[in-house]
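Figure-free illustration: sequence to structure, shown twice.
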Amino acid sequence: VSLCWPGWSTVMHSRLTAASLSRARVILLPQPPE
């Protein structure tokens, strides 16, 4: 993974954070009825 262009780490961090929060939400909270 190259960090040549600015903002790359920010984008990856936000994506990883969003994925982690989404995964944690699925695990910790019950699924709402569709």
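We now fold a second protein in the same way, so the two outputs can be compared directly.
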Amino acid sequence: MNRYRVDIVIYLVSALFLIGAVSLWWHGVWPSSSGVVLEPFGQDGIGTGLEGYPVSGGSGPGDQGDDNLDNGSPSSGLKDGSPEVPTIVVHVAGAVLRPGVYELIEGQRVHNAIELAGAADDADLDMLNLAAVLRDSDKVYVPRKGESLPPGWTGMAGTSGAGAGSTGGGNSGSGGVSFPINLNTATAKELEALPGIGPSLANAIITYRTEHGPFKDPHDVVAVPGIGEKTYQKMAPLIVVR
């Protein structure tokens, strides 16, 4: 009888030991509900956290994350609320590598425009006032070495504002005529100061604009009888319309 009781005690102790071992193993493998549940890797091989946001570089609710990105659009370089930088548009022509229309910051100078367009190897920069301040609608004409220009011409033609001649002052040609010449208001004397234009063609220009209205573009002057493309090319750096 005593032996039977001893066996029962042994069995009970063994059972309790086994239950304890199983319990310890169970809790060691499976974390409690208060622990962090490990999620499997997604299709892209990126682990996810509890809320499904990517762990590698992602952001959850309330974070700024990618909200600070501009989706690849170019940055203006100005913060919100900053005053807009005033700009001007100028035309660069003549002995340059990339003639055309350029936008610059207001207050920039002739040399800034030429740097954008790129001076050609045969550009005669000494004919220009490189320090002159540009204005909106100015035209910078860079002459070539050996190119003949009217006396006093420095290559600057402005089209903005009253009396816009060269930037920083007028360009006085023969007979005291200031360049550039506005085709829509020029007198016969002023027109005759242009290369290739004599009294007959000067009167023809005045007659044409009286009958057809103001010129909208300097190149429109080729519509005047007697003025061809070659004559226009000679006078192009010296004329404007406004």
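Summary for the second example: The beta strands are 87-94, 100-105, 139-142, 156-157, 171-172, 178-179, 181-182, 239-240.
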